[in-house]
Write a structure and sequence with these properties.
- By secondary structure, the protein is an all-alpha fold.
- Helix content is 82%, strand content 0%.
- It contains ten helices and no strands.
- The chain has helices at residues 2-18, 28-84, 89-98, 100-108, 112-132, 136-151, 160-177, 181-194, 199-236, 244-270.
- α1 runs antiparallel to α2 (28-84) and α5 (112-132) runs parallel beside α7.
- The radius of gyration is 38 Å and the shape is elongated.
């Protein structure tokens, strides 16, 4: 590249002196010949000047891109060093948000190496700390973004499956903490099909099932206790309910809700998952 534009400079510098007519004759033929030579060398000068400008422009663009690349490399190293160090979750969140434009630019440029660099930081040091600090809705939004970022690596990166499994797990956890148990288990089902013996995935899946059962039995428990309290109020007010079933059905529903919930959870614990 250096040789190319230096050659252009040499051509520009030496073509002008050569443009001076060798003959200073006074005949019309000599004048025409001199004019022809000047025109030819002028065109050559213009051509070489344009070529020089083009070479210089290309060179400056090359150097600019190298400067930007080196700046990014230095920034990436600093970021990696920070996120590899031990800090509180809130510090990771603040650091990522302070440099969110830098990370977004790396994701937008589409380079595999840059995407592979950002995803672990965004997932483990931004989305997960958001989840752990109770910012579940925001964490879920970020995890959905990460899922889209990971799709850019499909068929290009060996880390695609690893990233996809991790983000699916974190989405499952986040949805569970938002008490969206069915949606959470949809995420855990995806990864359990690939890793059916993973204890952590199994425990989360079963925990969601138990929470769904709890939600159902709590409704029956509240209805049963409410009916039982209503019967007591009526009896204290002087209204006697002779029918034993009508009188005791509330307490029976409440008791069955407690026993049923306990028994169902035990069944879930012993259940061997068979996911289709």
């Amino acid at each position: 590249m250096f040789i190319g534009w230096l050659t252009c400079i040499w051509q520009v510098c030496y073509c002008l002196p050569q443009a001076s007519p060798k003959s200073t004759g006074t005949t019309n033929g000599s004048k025409l010949q001199d004019a022809y030579r000047l025109g030819r060398y002028g065109a050559s000068f213009k051509k070489n000047t344009n070529l020089l400008a083009e070479k210089l422009s290309t060179s400056f663009s090359f150097f600019d891109s190298k400067i930007i690349e080196n700046t990014n490399m230095n920034s990436k190293t600093k970021m990696q060093n920070f996120f590899d160090s031990k800090y509180e979750n809130i510090q990771y969140i603040e650091k990522y948000e302070e440099n969110i434009e830098f990370f977004n630019n790396l994701l937008k440029n589409g380079h595999k190496e840059d995407i592979e660099f950002v995803i672990p930081i965004k997932m483990y040091h931004y989305a997960d700390p958001l989840n752990q600090t109770g910012n579940y809705s925001k964490a879920l939004t970020v995890l959905n973004e990460i899922e889209e970022d990971i799709e850019k690596l499909k068929g290009q990166s060996k880390r695609y499956n690893q990233f996809l499994e991790s983000v699916t797990f974190l989405k499952g956890v986040c949805l569970a903490r938002l008490k969206k148990y069915k949606e959470s288990n949809k995420e855990f089902t995806k990864i359990l099909k690939k890793n059916p013996t993973n204890d952590r995935y199994i425990n989360w899946y079963k925990s969601n099932k138990k929470n769904e059962i709890d939600r159902l039995f709590w409704i029956f428990l509240i209805l049963g206790l409410g009916y039982y309290l209503l019967v007591l109020i009526l009896q204290f007010s002087g209204l006697k309910i002779e029918n034993v079933i009508l009188r005791e059905i509330g307490s029976a529903i409440a008791l069955l809700s407690i026993v049923g919930s306990f028994a169902w959870k035990k069944l879930i614990d012993k259940q061997i998952l068979k996911l289709k």
